[in-house]
Write a structure and sequence with these properties.
- The chain is of the alpha+beta class.
- The chain is built from 10 helices and 19 strands.
- It has a 6-stranded mixed sheet with strand order 10-11-12-13-14-19, with helices on one face. It has a 4-stranded antiparallel sheet with strand order 7-6-8-9. It has a 3-stranded antiparallel sheet with strand order 3-17-16.
- Strand 6 and strand 7 form a beta hairpin.
- The chain is globular and about 70 Å long.
- It starts with a strand and ends in an 8-residue tail after the last strand.
Amino acid sequence: MLVPVPGGDHPIRLERLGFSRAGYLQPAMARLFTITLALLLVQAGFTLPAQDRDAGWRSDIEFFVAEAQRVHADPQRPAYGDTFTAAAEKLQAQVPSLSDDQVLARMMKLAAILNDGHTGLYGPGPNSKLPFERRVLPFKFYIFPSGLYIIDGAEDWGDFAGNRVLRFGDVTAEEVMKRMSAYRGVDNAQTWAWMGPQFYLPKLALLKEVGVEVTEGTVELTLSAIEGEEESLTVEGGDYSMMRKLRPFPLRDGEPPLYLQKVDTNYWLQPMPEHQAMYLQFNQVRDAAGDPIPAFAERLRTALRENDSKLLIVDTRHNNGGNNTLLRPLVRALIEFEMREPENRIVVLMGRNTFSACQNFLNRVERWTNATFVGEPSSSRPNFVGESNEIELPFSKVQGSISNMYWQDSDPWDQRQWIEPDVEVLLTVDDY
């Protein structure tokens, strides 16, 4: 069936637009038209009938699967695996019986099957019209060798810093963390030790998803105080946000220890003449305003010579990455320092927050120097799927990332889950 094109010389076949010869939309195009109309209604603020809401979520699932199969960079191609595709099909069928929070949680679980630290669904963006549970607990959590602790709190909740968390409702803290780990892909166990307590554990919707009782926006926590006494605390969720990275203990008096003094400064130096040492804290692989990495690397060279430093301590414990194409000048400065004098030594401090582009930094320091690595294992692999490639699901406006780069930064046969420290030093709650 042909239709004329206004102002044109060539007619268009309706079949190419999705119509049948009788002028009706073909089934596939009719479905696409319905989904598109539903998305436009949501954007305009209309409340959708259940069937259109279901169609919208199903379109988001289809979109995510298609994008994962198109761009996800894992050489094993898990987006085409039976586990991933079967989970997506199962979720499609479950949509009508699930709340919006439950669909989101199951989609997070779907993304976790791709299993890398840069791929995941984070939560609804500011433009989402769906009634998501956005409230979080007013606490910042951290896992020490002795258990899960509150290390800071929003507003008046900071007084609970230092308390160990024993249970969320009737579920132990360890079990909650274990269950919740299924909703986030990681490079290794260190990725979850860093991301889980800070970004996922406070979410009321996820706590409810993993079996914690959430009553009218409140959660019952069982705490063990610093003195060892247990207490029950009812906590109401709200619109809270906490500073990222490990911070000085809020109830401590006096000057914070050196490693916690400038965690938001991309990189900085502190001479330690009493040890013939130079302390370099490298907190972000980003050029600082007015002080790009090449200029900083030159300043490092000068400071090492002028202070006659024999030991260079490079602290990467707060560095979750950035742009690894910026690393070369700094790596060269380390190589030159080590080669200048036989007694010159490099020690690299690392941990669970040493991730992404900073993993690339560790790889290159390991390859090109004789540095000693101290602390916890890193939270990326030497060869890893990386790069934050932001996405937004069209219907729900849920935001996330699908990693579209594979960094084979080590030998092709390097299957290590992390760089292991030569000297393991774990941060205890007492030390903190």
